[in-house]
Protein backbone atom coordinates (compact mmCIF):
# COMPACT_ATOMS: atom_id res chain seq x y z
CA UNK A 1 0.00 0.00 0.00
CA UNK A 2 2.82 2.36 1.02
CA UNK A 3 4.60 1.50 -2.19
CA UNK A 4 1.49 2.38 -4.26
CA UNK A 5 1.15 5.76 -2.50
CA UNK A 6 4.83 6.39 -3.11
CA UNK A 7 4.48 5.51 -6.78
CA UNK A 8 1.42 7.76 -7.12
CA UNK A 9 3.39 10.58 -5.45
CA UNK A 10 6.35 10.17 -7.82
CA UNK A 11 3.98 10.04 -10.79
CA UNK A 12 2.23 13.20 -9.61
CA UNK A 13 5.55 15.03 -9.25
CA UNK A 14 6.58 13.84 -12.71
CA UNK A 15 3.28 15.03 -14.26
CA UNK A 16 3.56 18.36 -12.43
CA UNK A 17 7.16 18.91 -13.67
CA UNK A 18 6.15 17.96 -17.20
CA UNK A 19 3.18 20.35 -17.03
CA UNK A 20 5.47 23.14 -15.78
CA UNK A 21 7.89 22.50 -18.64
CA UNK A 22 5.19 22.53 -21.31
CA UNK A 23 3.42 25.52 -19.72
CA UNK A 24 6.71 27.43 -19.80
CA UNK A 25 6.75 27.01 -23.55
CA UNK A 26 3.09 27.28 -24.52
CA UNK A 27 2.04 30.00 -22.04
CA UNK A 28 3.56 33.46 -21.58
CA UNK A 29 5.54 33.97 -18.35
CA UNK A 30 3.50 35.12 -15.35
CA UNK A 31 5.30 38.49 -15.25
CA UNK A 32 4.08 39.41 -18.75
CA UNK A 33 1.31 42.06 -18.85
CA UNK A 34 -2.14 40.57 -18.32
CA UNK A 35 -4.03 43.39 -20.05
CA UNK A 36 -2.98 42.55 -23.62
CA UNK A 37 -4.09 39.56 -25.70
CA UNK A 38 -2.04 36.38 -26.15
CA UNK A 39 -1.62 34.97 -29.64
CA UNK A 40 -2.09 31.21 -29.25
CA UNK A 41 1.14 29.23 -29.19
CA UNK A 42 0.09 27.13 -32.19
CA UNK A 43 0.15 30.26 -34.41
CA UNK A 44 3.91 30.11 -34.48
CA UNK A 45 3.85 26.44 -35.53
CA UNK A 46 1.63 26.97 -38.58
CA UNK A 47 4.46 27.58 -41.11
CA UNK A 48 6.05 24.33 -39.90
CA UNK A 49 3.05 22.21 -40.79
CA UNK A 50 1.24 24.07 -43.57
CA UNK A 51 1.91 25.99 -46.80
CA UNK A 52 1.07 29.45 -45.50
CA UNK A 53 1.23 33.04 -46.70
CA UNK A 54 2.28 35.51 -43.98
CA UNK A 55 -0.16 38.16 -45.22
CA UNK A 56 -3.06 35.73 -44.85
CA UNK A 57 -1.78 34.61 -41.45
CA UNK A 58 -1.51 38.22 -40.32
CA UNK A 59 -5.09 39.07 -41.32
CA UNK A 60 -6.46 35.90 -39.77
CA UNK A 61 -4.63 35.85 -36.43
CA UNK A 62 -2.87 39.14 -35.67
CA UNK A 63 -4.75 42.01 -37.25
CA UNK A 64 -7.72 42.22 -34.87
CA UNK A 65 -5.87 41.92 -31.53
CA UNK A 66 -3.13 44.25 -32.75
CA UNK A 67 -5.56 46.86 -34.08
CA UNK A 68 -7.63 46.77 -30.90
CA UNK A 69 -4.85 46.67 -28.31
CA UNK A 70 -1.69 47.83 -30.11
CA UNK A 71 0.42 45.12 -28.48
CA UNK A 72 0.15 41.35 -27.99
CA UNK A 73 2.06 38.51 -26.38
CA UNK A 74 3.50 36.16 -28.97
CA UNK A 75 5.92 33.21 -29.02
CA UNK A 76 8.79 33.59 -31.44
CA UNK A 77 12.45 32.63 -31.61
CA UNK A 78 12.31 30.34 -28.59
CA UNK A 79 10.87 33.03 -26.28
CA UNK A 80 7.67 34.82 -25.42
CA UNK A 81 7.75 38.43 -26.61
CA UNK A 82 5.56 41.51 -26.56
CA UNK A 83 4.89 42.55 -30.13
CA UNK A 84 4.21 46.29 -30.31
CA UNK A 85 2.49 48.00 -33.23
CA UNK A 86 0.38 51.00 -32.14
CA UNK A 87 2.19 54.10 -33.44
CA UNK A 88 2.10 55.94 -30.10
CA UNK A 89 3.72 52.93 -28.43
CA UNK A 90 6.22 52.57 -31.29
CA UNK A 91 7.11 56.26 -31.02
CA UNK A 92 7.96 55.61 -27.36
CA UNK A 93 10.06 52.55 -28.26
CA UNK A 94 12.01 54.48 -30.89
CA UNK A 95 12.45 57.59 -28.76
CA UNK A 96 13.48 55.89 -25.53
CA UNK A 97 16.02 53.56 -27.06
CA UNK A 98 17.71 53.12 -23.66
CA UNK A 99 14.51 51.52 -22.25
CA UNK A 100 14.26 49.18 -25.25
CA UNK A 101 17.83 48.30 -26.20
CA UNK A 102 18.56 45.80 -28.94
CA UNK A 103 18.95 42.18 -27.88
CA UNK A 104 19.92 40.32 -31.03
CA UNK A 105 20.28 36.61 -31.61
CA UNK A 106 23.69 36.54 -29.94
CA UNK A 107 21.96 37.63 -26.69
CA UNK A 108 18.65 35.86 -27.10
CA UNK A 109 19.83 32.47 -28.32
CA UNK A 110 23.63 32.53 -28.14
CA UNK A 111 24.08 28.84 -29.03
CA UNK A 112 21.92 28.93 -32.14
CA UNK A 113 23.03 28.66 -35.75
CA UNK A 114 21.35 32.01 -36.38
CA UNK A 115 23.45 33.65 -33.64
CA UNK A 116 26.59 32.21 -35.19
CA UNK A 117 25.51 33.71 -38.51
CA UNK A 118 24.53 37.25 -37.44
CA UNK A 119 26.56 37.62 -34.23
CA UNK A 120 27.27 41.02 -32.72
CA UNK A 121 27.27 43.71 -35.40
CA UNK A 122 26.24 47.27 -36.17
CA UNK A 123 22.54 46.33 -36.18
CA UNK A 124 22.54 44.24 -33.01
CA UNK A 125 25.21 45.93 -30.85
CA UNK A 126 24.49 48.50 -28.15
CA UNK A 127 26.47 51.13 -26.22
CA UNK A 128 30.07 51.91 -27.13
CA UNK A 129 30.40 48.98 -29.51
CA UNK A 130 27.46 50.23 -31.57
CA UNK A 131 28.92 53.74 -31.50
CA UNK A 132 32.25 52.49 -32.82
CA UNK A 133 30.62 50.44 -35.60
CA UNK A 134 28.26 53.31 -36.54
CA UNK A 135 31.11 55.86 -36.60
CA UNK A 136 32.96 53.55 -38.99
CA UNK A 137 29.98 52.93 -41.28
CA UNK A 138 28.26 56.32 -41.42
CA UNK A 139 30.71 58.22 -43.66
CA UNK A 140 30.56 55.39 -46.21
CA UNK A 141 26.80 54.86 -46.11
CA UNK A 142 25.99 58.53 -46.19
CA UNK A 143 28.45 59.51 -48.92
CA UNK A 144 27.20 60.35 -52.41
CA UNK A 145 26.19 57.18 -54.17
CA UNK A 146 28.11 56.20 -57.31
CA UNK A 147 25.18 54.81 -59.32
CA UNK A 148 27.27 53.98 -62.40
CA UNK A 149 27.81 50.57 -60.74
CA UNK A 150 24.06 49.93 -60.50
CA UNK A 151 23.54 51.12 -64.07
CA UNK A 152 26.13 48.69 -65.40
CA UNK A 153 24.77 45.82 -63.31
CA UNK A 154 21.15 46.59 -64.22
CA UNK A 155 21.98 46.52 -67.93
CA UNK A 156 23.63 43.13 -67.49
CA UNK A 157 20.62 41.91 -65.49
CA UNK A 158 18.20 42.99 -68.22
CA UNK A 159 20.12 40.98 -70.86
CA UNK A 160 20.16 37.92 -68.60
CA UNK A 161 16.41 38.17 -68.04
CA UNK A 162 15.75 38.51 -71.76
CA UNK A 163 17.95 35.49 -72.50
CA UNK A 164 16.06 33.44 -69.93
CA UNK A 165 12.68 34.61 -71.24
CA UNK A 166 13.75 33.54 -74.72
CA UNK A 167 14.19 29.97 -73.43
CA UNK A 168 11.25 29.74 -71.03
CA UNK A 169 7.58 30.74 -70.81
CA UNK A 170 8.43 33.00 -67.88
CA UNK A 171 11.33 33.92 -65.64
CA UNK A 172 11.74 32.83 -62.01
CA UNK A 173 13.12 36.20 -61.11
CA UNK A 174 14.26 35.78 -57.48
CA UNK A 175 17.78 34.42 -58.02
CA UNK A 176 18.52 37.00 -60.71
CA UNK A 177 17.45 39.90 -58.51
CA UNK A 178 19.47 38.48 -55.63
CA UNK A 179 22.65 38.24 -57.73
CA UNK A 180 22.02 41.79 -58.97
CA UNK A 181 21.57 43.12 -55.42
CA UNK A 182 24.74 41.29 -54.32
CA UNK A 183 26.69 42.77 -57.22
CA UNK A 184 25.51 46.27 -56.23
CA UNK A 185 26.34 46.04 -52.55
CA UNK A 186 29.67 44.30 -52.94
CA UNK A 187 30.96 46.59 -55.68
CA UNK A 188 29.48 49.84 -54.38
CA UNK A 189 29.80 49.46 -50.61
CA UNK A 190 32.32 46.71 -49.93
CA UNK A 191 34.60 47.67 -52.81
CA UNK A 192 35.05 44.17 -54.17
CA UNK A 193 33.84 42.51 -57.37
CA UNK A 194 32.38 39.07 -56.70
CA UNK A 195 31.24 38.51 -60.29
CA UNK A 196 28.16 36.69 -59.06
CA UNK A 197 25.74 38.22 -61.58
CA UNK A 198 25.14 35.67 -64.35
CA UNK A 199 27.19 33.05 -62.50
CA UNK A 200 24.65 30.88 -60.67
CA UNK A 201 27.47 28.51 -59.64
CA UNK A 202 29.40 31.21 -57.78
CA UNK A 203 30.63 29.55 -54.52
CA UNK A 204 29.18 32.31 -52.33
CA UNK A 205 25.74 32.05 -53.97
CA UNK A 206 25.82 28.28 -53.67
CA UNK A 207 26.78 28.49 -50.01
CA UNK A 208 24.00 30.98 -49.40
CA UNK A 209 21.47 28.75 -51.11
CA UNK A 210 22.54 25.89 -48.81
CA UNK A 211 22.57 27.95 -45.63
CA UNK A 212 19.32 29.85 -45.94
CA UNK A 213 16.89 26.94 -45.59
CA UNK A 214 18.91 25.73 -42.59
CA UNK A 215 18.85 29.09 -40.83
CA UNK A 216 15.37 30.23 -41.76
CA UNK A 217 13.69 26.87 -41.31
CA UNK A 218 10.54 27.80 -39.29
CA UNK A 219 11.08 24.91 -36.85
CA UNK A 220 14.64 25.86 -35.96
CA UNK A 221 13.78 29.57 -35.90
CA UNK A 222 11.18 28.87 -33.23
CA UNK A 223 13.13 26.34 -31.23
CA UNK A 224 16.73 27.58 -31.41
CA UNK A 225 17.40 26.02 -27.99
CA UNK A 226 17.58 22.64 -29.77
CA UNK A 227 20.80 23.81 -31.45
CA UNK A 228 22.50 23.09 -28.11
CA UNK A 229 21.88 19.36 -28.63
CA UNK A 230 24.58 19.23 -31.29
CA UNK A 231 22.44 17.22 -33.71
CA UNK A 232 24.51 16.24 -36.77
CA UNK A 233 22.35 18.34 -39.14
CA UNK A 234 22.77 21.44 -36.97
CA UNK A 235 26.50 20.90 -36.57
CA UNK A 236 26.64 20.69 -40.36
CA UNK A 237 24.73 24.00 -40.54
CA UNK A 238 27.27 25.61 -38.18
CA UNK A 239 30.12 24.40 -40.37
CA UNK A 240 28.44 25.91 -43.43
CA UNK A 241 27.96 29.24 -41.65
CA UNK A 242 31.65 29.36 -40.70
CA UNK A 243 32.64 28.52 -44.28
CA UNK A 244 30.35 31.21 -45.61
CA UNK A 245 31.77 33.89 -43.31
CA UNK A 246 35.35 32.92 -44.20
CA UNK A 247 34.54 32.94 -47.94
CA UNK A 248 32.87 36.36 -47.70
CA UNK A 249 35.77 37.88 -45.77
CA UNK A 250 38.32 36.50 -48.19
CA UNK A 251 36.38 37.86 -51.18
CA UNK A 252 36.21 41.31 -49.59
CA UNK A 253 39.92 41.23 -48.75
CA UNK A 254 40.75 40.31 -52.36
CA UNK A 255 39.19 43.58 -53.46
CA UNK A 256 41.47 45.53 -51.11
CA UNK A 257 45.01 44.53 -51.92
CA UNK A 258 45.88 48.22 -51.78
CA UNK A 259 46.44 49.89 -48.40
CA UNK A 260 43.08 50.94 -46.95
CA UNK A 261 42.90 54.42 -45.47
CA UNK A 262 40.71 55.27 -42.46
CA UNK A 263 39.33 58.35 -44.27
CA UNK A 264 38.12 56.31 -47.26
CA UNK A 265 34.40 56.56 -48.06
CA UNK A 266 34.30 52.91 -49.03
CA UNK A 267 32.80 50.75 -46.29
CA UNK A 268 35.01 47.72 -47.03
CA UNK A 269 38.11 49.90 -46.78
CA UNK A 270 36.95 51.56 -43.58
CA UNK A 271 36.26 48.21 -41.87
CA UNK A 272 39.57 46.72 -43.00
CA UNK A 273 41.59 49.72 -41.95
CA UNK A 274 39.85 49.70 -38.52
CA UNK A 275 40.87 46.04 -38.21
CA UNK A 276 44.47 46.77 -39.23
CA UNK A 277 44.83 49.59 -36.74
CA UNK A 278 43.33 47.51 -33.93
CA UNK A 279 39.98 49.30 -33.56
CA UNK A 280 38.04 46.20 -34.67
CA UNK A 281 38.68 42.60 -33.64
CA UNK A 282 38.70 39.91 -36.33
CA UNK A 283 35.31 38.74 -35.03
CA UNK A 284 33.75 42.20 -35.35
CA UNK A 285 35.32 42.70 -38.77
CA UNK A 286 33.70 39.45 -39.93
CA UNK A 287 30.30 40.14 -38.38
CA UNK A 288 30.10 43.71 -39.67
CA UNK A 289 31.16 42.62 -43.15
CA UNK A 290 28.53 39.91 -43.05
CA UNK A 291 25.71 42.15 -41.83
CA UNK A 292 26.51 44.85 -44.39
CA UNK A 293 26.45 42.20 -47.07
CA UNK A 294 23.18 40.68 -45.80
CA UNK A 295 21.26 43.88 -44.94
CA UNK A 296 22.75 45.65 -47.93
CA UNK A 297 21.53 43.14 -50.51
CA UNK A 298 18.54 41.35 -49.00
CA UNK A 299 16.44 44.42 -48.21
CA UNK A 300 17.01 46.07 -51.62
CA UNK A 301 16.34 42.71 -53.30
CA UNK A 302 13.03 42.31 -51.44
CA UNK A 303 11.97 45.88 -52.22
CA UNK A 304 12.74 45.37 -55.90
CA UNK A 305 10.78 42.10 -56.00
CA UNK A 306 7.77 43.72 -54.30
CA UNK A 307 7.91 46.70 -56.62
CA UNK A 308 8.13 44.52 -59.73
CA UNK A 309 5.18 42.51 -58.41
CA UNK A 310 3.10 45.62 -57.69
CA UNK A 311 3.66 47.01 -61.19
CA UNK A 312 3.16 43.63 -62.88
CA UNK A 313 -0.20 43.48 -61.15
CA UNK A 314 -1.14 47.01 -62.35
CA UNK A 315 -0.14 47.31 -66.02
CA UNK A 316 -1.79 50.77 -66.29
CA UNK A 317 0.27 52.14 -63.43
CA UNK A 318 3.39 50.52 -64.90
CA UNK A 319 2.74 52.33 -68.18
CA UNK A 320 2.12 55.69 -66.44
CA UNK A 321 5.31 55.49 -64.40
CA UNK A 322 7.24 54.44 -67.51
CA UNK A 323 5.96 57.51 -69.39
CA UNK A 324 6.99 59.72 -66.48
CA UNK A 325 10.53 58.29 -66.42
CA UNK A 326 10.78 58.51 -70.23
CA UNK A 327 9.98 62.23 -69.99
CA UNK A 328 13.47 62.72 -68.50
CA UNK A 329 16.59 63.06 -70.64
CA UNK A 330 18.62 59.80 -70.98
CA UNK A 331 21.23 61.17 -68.54
CA UNK A 332 18.60 62.08 -65.94
CA UNK A 333 16.99 58.64 -66.19
CA UNK A 334 20.02 57.22 -64.35
CA UNK A 335 20.49 60.15 -61.99
CA UNK A 336 18.88 59.42 -58.60
CA UNK A 337 18.43 63.13 -57.80
CA UNK A 338 16.55 63.75 -61.05
CA UNK A 339 14.48 60.60 -60.50
CA UNK A 340 13.61 61.84 -57.00
CA UNK A 341 11.76 64.80 -58.57
CA UNK A 342 9.21 62.52 -60.30
CA UNK A 343 5.93 62.43 -58.33
CA UNK A 344 4.48 59.18 -59.63
CA UNK A 345 7.73 57.20 -59.30
CA UNK A 346 8.24 58.65 -55.80
CA UNK A 347 4.74 57.93 -54.53
CA UNK A 348 4.75 54.46 -56.07
CA UNK A 349 8.03 53.61 -54.30
CA UNK A 350 6.85 55.09 -50.97
CA UNK A 351 3.58 53.18 -51.21
CA UNK A 352 5.43 49.90 -51.89
CA UNK A 353 7.69 50.56 -48.89
CA UNK A 354 4.63 51.31 -46.74
CA UNK A 355 2.63 48.25 -47.72
CA UNK A 356 5.44 45.73 -48.06
CA UNK A 357 8.18 46.58 -45.53
CA UNK A 358 10.90 44.03 -46.34
CA UNK A 359 11.53 43.40 -42.64
CA UNK A 360 7.88 43.05 -41.78
CA UNK A 361 8.38 41.83 -38.21
CA UNK A 362 11.45 42.02 -36.00
CA UNK A 363 11.86 40.76 -32.43
CA UNK A 364 15.19 42.02 -31.24
CA UNK A 365 14.75 44.27 -28.23
CA UNK A 366 14.59 43.67 -24.48
CA UNK A 367 13.46 46.09 -21.80
CA UNK A 368 16.36 47.34 -19.70
CA UNK A 369 14.19 48.10 -16.63
CA UNK A 370 10.49 48.02 -15.69
CA UNK A 371 8.78 50.34 -18.15
CA UNK A 372 5.21 51.52 -18.71
CA UNK A 373 4.24 51.18 -22.37
CA UNK A 374 1.69 53.92 -22.97
CA UNK A 375 -0.36 54.48 -19.83
CA UNK A 376 -1.22 51.02 -18.71
CA UNK A 377 0.94 48.21 -20.08
CA UNK A 378 3.61 47.33 -17.57
CA UNK A 379 6.60 45.62 -19.13
CA UNK A 380 8.91 44.11 -16.56
CA UNK A 381 12.68 44.39 -16.96
CA UNK A 382 14.02 41.70 -19.29
CA UNK A 383 10.87 41.41 -21.46
CA UNK A 384 11.70 40.65 -25.08
CA UNK A 385 9.88 43.00 -27.42
CA UNK A 386 9.53 43.49 -31.14
CA UNK A 387 7.64 45.39 -33.79
CA UNK A 388 5.59 44.65 -36.89
CA UNK A 389 5.99 47.25 -39.62
CA UNK A 390 3.37 45.59 -41.82
CA UNK A 391 0.77 46.36 -39.18
CA UNK A 392 2.00 49.79 -38.04
CA UNK A 393 2.32 51.05 -41.63
CA UNK A 394 -1.36 50.23 -42.18
CA UNK A 395 -2.62 52.10 -39.13
CA UNK A 396 -6.10 53.31 -40.12
CA UNK A 397 -6.18 56.32 -37.81
CA UNK A 398 -3.24 57.80 -39.67
CA UNK A 399 -3.57 56.35 -43.19
CA UNK A 400 -7.38 56.27 -43.33
CA UNK A 401 -9.91 53.45 -43.76
CA UNK A 402 -8.32 52.35 -47.07
CA UNK A 403 -4.90 51.78 -45.45
CA UNK A 404 -4.85 48.22 -46.85
CA UNK A 405 -5.21 49.52 -50.41
CA UNK A 406 -2.23 50.23 -52.66
CA UNK A 407 -2.92 53.88 -53.48
CA UNK A 408 0.18 55.97 -54.37
CA UNK A 409 -1.94 59.15 -54.53
CA UNK A 410 -2.31 59.09 -50.72
CA UNK A 411 1.22 60.53 -50.59
CA UNK A 412 0.05 63.82 -52.19
CA UNK A 413 0.39 65.55 -55.54
CA UNK A 414 3.83 67.10 -55.47
CA UNK A 415 7.15 65.61 -54.45
CA UNK A 416 7.35 68.23 -51.68
CA UNK A 417 4.01 66.99 -50.26
CA UNK A 418 5.29 63.43 -50.48
CA UNK A 419 8.57 64.12 -48.71
CA UNK A 420 6.75 66.08 -46.01
CA UNK A 421 4.35 63.20 -45.41
CA UNK A 422 7.27 60.72 -45.43
CA UNK A 423 8.99 62.73 -42.68
CA UNK A 424 5.78 63.24 -40.68
CA UNK A 425 4.83 59.56 -40.89
CA UNK A 426 8.36 58.56 -39.86
CA UNK A 427 8.40 60.94 -36.89
CA UNK A 428 4.95 59.76 -35.74
CA UNK A 429 6.08 56.13 -36.11
CA UNK A 430 3.31 55.33 -38.58
CA UNK A 431 5.87 54.43 -41.26
CA UNK A 432 8.60 52.29 -39.71
CA UNK A 433 9.97 50.44 -42.72
CA UNK A 434 13.42 51.87 -41.94
CA UNK A 435 12.94 51.61 -38.14
CA UNK A 436 13.40 55.29 -37.16
CA UNK A 437 14.81 57.17 -34.16
CA UNK A 438 18.42 56.89 -33.10
CA UNK A 439 18.77 53.40 -34.60
CA UNK A 440 17.23 54.26 -37.95
CA UNK A 441 18.53 52.36 -40.99
CA UNK A 442 21.89 53.81 -42.00
CA UNK A 443 21.59 52.45 -45.54
CA UNK A 444 18.35 54.28 -46.35
CA UNK A 445 19.90 56.94 -48.58
CA UNK A 446 21.95 54.39 -50.49
CA UNK A 447 19.00 51.98 -50.80
CA UNK A 448 16.62 54.64 -52.14
CA UNK A 449 19.14 55.95 -54.68
CA UNK A 450 19.91 52.42 -55.90
CA UNK A 451 16.22 51.53 -56.05
CA UNK A 452 15.23 54.59 -58.06
CA UNK A 453 17.94 53.86 -60.61
CA UNK A 454 17.05 50.14 -60.77
CA UNK A 455 13.34 50.89 -61.31
CA UNK A 456 14.15 53.47 -63.96
CA UNK A 457 16.29 51.01 -65.94
CA UNK A 458 13.66 48.31 -65.63
CA UNK A 459 10.90 50.66 -66.78
CA UNK A 460 12.81 52.02 -69.73
CA UNK A 461 14.10 48.62 -70.91
CA UNK A 462 11.33 46.13 -70.17
CA UNK A 463 7.62 45.57 -69.93
CA UNK A 464 6.63 42.83 -67.53
CA UNK A 465 3.53 41.01 -66.32
CA UNK A 466 2.77 38.21 -63.87
CA UNK A 467 3.03 34.68 -65.21
CA UNK A 468 -0.67 33.67 -65.06
CA UNK A 469 0.34 30.26 -63.64
CA UNK A 470 2.28 31.83 -60.74
CA UNK A 471 0.49 30.91 -57.46
CA UNK A 472 -0.06 34.34 -55.94
CA UNK A 473 1.56 33.86 -52.53
CA UNK A 474 3.78 35.83 -50.18
CA UNK A 475 6.60 34.16 -48.22
CA UNK A 476 5.39 32.05 -45.25
CA UNK A 477 7.57 33.74 -42.58
CA UNK A 478 10.61 35.97 -42.22
CA UNK A 479 11.23 38.72 -44.80
CA UNK A 480 8.02 39.67 -46.64
CA UNK A 481 8.06 39.27 -50.43
CA UNK A 482 6.21 37.54 -53.25
CA UNK A 483 7.16 33.86 -53.05
CA UNK A 484 9.08 32.51 -56.08
CA UNK A 485 7.79 35.34 -58.25
CA UNK A 486 7.55 34.46 -61.96
CA UNK A 487 7.34 37.24 -64.54
CA UNK A 488 7.00 37.38 -68.30
CA UNK A 489 9.35 40.05 -69.57
CA UNK A 490 9.53 41.72 -72.95
CA UNK A 491 12.03 44.18 -74.32
CA UNK A 492 10.69 47.66 -75.04
CA UNK A 493 11.07 48.49 -78.73
CA UNK A 494 14.07 50.71 -79.32
CA UNK A 495 15.24 50.41 -75.71
CA UNK A 496 18.64 48.93 -76.55
C1 LIG B 1 14.96 48.76 -48.78
C2 LIG B 1 16.07 48.69 -48.13
C3 LIG B 1 16.23 48.65 -46.63
C4 LIG B 1 15.30 48.54 -45.63
C5 LIG B 1 13.79 48.45 -45.76
C6 LIG B 1 16.02 48.54 -44.37
C7 LIG B 1 15.43 48.44 -43.12
C8 LIG B 1 16.13 48.49 -41.93
C9 LIG B 1 15.53 48.29 -40.64
C10 LIG B 1 14.07 47.99 -40.35
C11 LIG B 1 16.52 48.42 -39.72
C12 LIG B 1 16.40 48.23 -38.21
C13 LIG B 1 16.65 46.78 -37.90
C14 LIG B 1 16.37 46.40 -36.47
O1 LIG B 1 15.39 46.80 -35.88
O2 LIG B 1 17.15 45.64 -35.93
C15 LIG B 1 17.74 48.71 -40.42
C16 LIG B 1 18.96 48.95 -39.81
C17 LIG B 1 20.14 49.11 -40.51
N1 LIG B 1 20.29 49.04 -41.87
FE1 LIG B 1 18.83 48.93 -43.26
N2 LIG B 1 17.36 48.64 -44.63
C18 LIG B 1 17.53 48.71 -45.99
C19 LIG B 1 18.72 48.80 -46.68
C20 LIG B 1 19.95 48.86 -46.10
C21 LIG B 1 21.20 48.92 -46.82
C22 LIG B 1 21.36 48.91 -48.34
C23 LIG B 1 22.18 48.98 -45.91
C24 LIG B 1 23.65 49.04 -46.22
C25 LIG B 1 24.51 48.28 -45.71
C26 LIG B 1 21.57 49.01 -44.59
C27 LIG B 1 22.24 49.14 -43.39
C28 LIG B 1 21.63 49.19 -42.15
C29 LIG B 1 22.36 49.39 -40.92
C30 LIG B 1 23.86 49.58 -40.79
C31 LIG B 1 21.42 49.36 -39.89
C32 LIG B 1 21.69 49.51 -38.39
C33 LIG B 1 21.46 50.94 -37.94
C34 LIG B 1 21.76 51.09 -36.47
O3 LIG B 1 21.28 50.31 -35.66
O4 LIG B 1 22.49 52.04 -36.15
N3 LIG B 1 20.21 48.92 -44.75
N4 LIG B 1 17.48 48.73 -41.76
Descriptive keywords:
496 residues; alpha+beta; 4-stranded mixed beta sheet; 9 strands; 8% strand; binds protoporphyrin IX containing FE
Protein described:
By secondary structure, the chain is an alpha+beta fold. The protein has one domain (38-491): Orthogonal Bundle (Cytochrome p450), CATH 1.10.630.10. The protein is 54% helix and 8% strand. The protein is built from 21 helices and nine strands. It has helices at 2-26, 42-49, 54-69, 87-95, 105-108, 113-118, 127-141, 148-167, 174-188, 203-215, 218-222, 232-254, 267-276, 282-313, 315-326, 336-339, 343-355, 389-392, 396-399, 415-427, 444-461; strands spanning 71-76, 79-84, 171-172, 361-366, 371-373, 377-379, 384-388, 462-466, 486-491. The strands form three sheets. A four-stranded mixed sheet has the order 1-2-7-4. A three-stranded antiparallel sheet has the order 3-9-8. Strand 5 (371-373) and strand 6 form a beta hairpin. Helix 7 (127-141) packs across helix 13 and helix 8 (148-167) runs antiparallel to helix 9. The protein is globular and about 95 Å long. The mean pLDDT is 94. Bound molecules: protoporphyrin IX containing FE. The site of protoporphyrin IX containing FE has 25 residues, from helix 7, helix 14, strand 4 and helix 21. It comes from Xylaria grammica. Belongs to the cytochrome P450 family. Keywords: Heme, Iron, Metal-binding, Monooxygenase, Oxidoreductase. This is Cytochrome P450. Pfam families: p450 (PF00067).
Amino acid sequence: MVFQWLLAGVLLIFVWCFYQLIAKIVLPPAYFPKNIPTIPFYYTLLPIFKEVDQEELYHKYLERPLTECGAVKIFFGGHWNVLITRPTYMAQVLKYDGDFPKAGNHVKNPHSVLALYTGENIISAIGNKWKLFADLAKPALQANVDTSIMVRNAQRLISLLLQEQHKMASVDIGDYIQAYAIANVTESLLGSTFEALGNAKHPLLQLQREIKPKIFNPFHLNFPGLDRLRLPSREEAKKLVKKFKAELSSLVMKGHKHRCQPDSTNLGCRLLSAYTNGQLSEYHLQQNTLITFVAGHENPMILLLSNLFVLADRPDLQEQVRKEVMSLSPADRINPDALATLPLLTSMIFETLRMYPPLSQIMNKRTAADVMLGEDILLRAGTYTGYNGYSTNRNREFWGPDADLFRPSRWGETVDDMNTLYRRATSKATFITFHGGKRTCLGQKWALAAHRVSMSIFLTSLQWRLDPTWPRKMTPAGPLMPKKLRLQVEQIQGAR
